[in-house]
Amino acid sequence: MDSRHIAVIDFGSQYTQLIVRRVREQGFFSRLYQPHELRDTGTPAAVILSGGPRSVTEEGSPDIDLDYLLAMDVPVLGVCYGMQLLSKKLGGSVAPGNTREYGPAQLVPCAVNSLFAGLSSSAQIWMSHSDTVKTLPPDAVVLGKNQQGVPVALQFGPKLFGIQFHPEVSHSHEGSKILSNFLAMAPDAAPFRIEDFKQELIAQIKKRCHGREVVCAVSGGVDSTVLAVLLKEANVPHRAIFVDNGLLRLNEVEEVQAQFARLGVNLETAHAADRFLGALAGEADPEKKRGIIGNLFVDVFWEAAANVEMLAQGTLYPDVIESATSGSIASKIKTHHNRVERIMELHRQGRVLEPLAELFKDEVRALGANLGIPHEILHRHPFPGPGLAVRCPGEVTEEKLRIIREGDAIFIRLLKEHGHYDKVWQAYCGLIPVKTVGVKGDERSYEFAVNLRAVTSEDAMTADFAKLPWDFLGLVSNAILNGVKGINRVLYDISTKPPSSIEWE
Ligand code: XMP
Fold first, then answer.
1. Helix, strand, or coil (residue 296)
2. pLDDT at 423 over 70
3. What atom in ligand 1 is closest to the CA of residue 505?
4. Which candidate, 43, 41, 45, places its Cα nearest to that of 64?
5. Using CA positions, which residue lies closest to atom 7 of ligand 1?
6. Gap between the Cα atoms of 94 and 56, Å rounded
7. Do residues 16 and 155 share a domain?
């Protein structure tokens, strides 16, 4: 860990992770710590105290060692709860506000100061708090007020600042500028360079493995591919296992095998299509289908892995924050505790390696590019663990899978050829298992329909249907109707999430 990073202290706000994200966007490495971990931050270049749901007036609310913080002699920015905590500890008083304040407000900077340099005279900020600072600590200077004249930004000392609003959310229109001004006060903050980070990760992997063999599950997706290549680069004994569950896309097994061969990673494929399709036979309930696939995945992987010394997982930073114990395999099957217990046991024994756990998705892509992984792998659309089963409502059969595979291959090929692939978050062709009447040649047909789904999204939590041009959709429809046997109708899914979801099951 580079000691000149930006330490963010987490008081529990739902936005804390966003602060880390915003700092990294500005080119500095940032990391989250719990309040009691202040001493573990080493010598950071600056400290940001996050917001939080509690009130600093409450008994037992999260606290920080102020003397230690001040002795660090680095710039400190308290956000919301962080500002109230600084105010209280520096001799001011905080009281519950008369009204809760959530949503937009205006920031009116009132003194020339470095934190607000270059800001507009009135910019939208985003509030989410109920407590307010009643009396200011001695020597505190008001840097900004809201439109009602209430102080919302304070300076407590040459390097000590507090703001009542959340600069990290995009609704604070000049929030990034404020963070950038604050970071400029930490001139020794080291820029985050992916090459340095890669070397550090490789050194850590070597140290942790200490000659032991590492096993990882790979899917061909971004995270597990970067993970496997990183293990190869670290030159530790490793095995990469790819489970063919029979629910993959057209030629996917061969393509993933070829992809890993090109990357120089030795891939073992566990061919288990028959086991998965056998177990799914006759099952139409979506949750039961997911359960069967999740359980079997762990069984097949575990049988193939046999006597695991170390397990590597492609857990990313957002997963770590969400749950201290979630991992790629663990989260895939979160309802199947007895099986996950094996992974938890390895965790307890210190035998789980999660080298990507400090990174966000785009940083994993940057690391992947640095490792020489091609663009088309790093920018592949997400593909769900249960594979085509969630795109095949009702019972899964070989015939339905064939239709989905062929339709999907046509749709994806045309998206790429017409420059739409990189503009959408995810796209696929699924099956609608309802037969309808059509005419083919001079004959009546009575066949299934397929649905095309293409969405735009930031994080898959919400999604909009992609506004693909009509002509393009017409072209795809025509190609699928002519190229895929067993269907006579193509529909385009124009549902948003919520209330829909991206997958159909
Ligand atoms: P939904 O359908 O919930 O999907 O809107 C949101 C995103 O998550 C993916 N997804 C999964 N990914 N295992 C995964 O690894 C799963 O069980 C799973 N279910 C959905 C989906 O493809 C979309 O990107």
1. helix
2. yes
3. 2
4. 41
5. 460
6. 7
7. yes
Task: Look at residue 502 and tell me if it is in a domain.
Answer: no
For residues 268 and 337, state if they share a domain: yes
The model's pTM is 0.80
**Is 80 an active-site residue?**
yes
- Is the pLDDT at 184 greater than 90? The verdict is yes
188, burial (CB in 10 Å: exposed 0-12, middle 13-18, buried 19+): exposed
Number of domains in the chain: 3
Tell me, in angstroms, the distance from the centre of ligand 1 to residue 384's CA.
Answer: 5
Higher pLDDT pick, 327 / 17: 17
> Is the pLDDT reported for residue 334 higher than 90?
no
Whole-angstrom Cα distance, residue 505 to residue 496? 15
Nearest CA to ligand 1 atom 3: 501
Same-domain check for residues 159 and 211: no
Q: Mean pLDDT: which of 7-16, 106-115, 319-328, 399-408 is highest?
A: 399-408
Strand ranges, E, within 121-189: 123-135, 141-145, 151-157, 160-163
- Rounded distance from Cα 221 to ligand 1 centre (Å): 13
Which residues have C-beta atoms less than 6 Å from ligand 1? 332, 382, 384-386, 426, 460, 497, 501-503
| Pair (365, 451) in one structural domain | no
pLDDT digit string, tens, across residues 71-83? 999 999 999 999 9
Q: How far is the CA of 404 from the centre of ligand 1 (A)?
A: 17
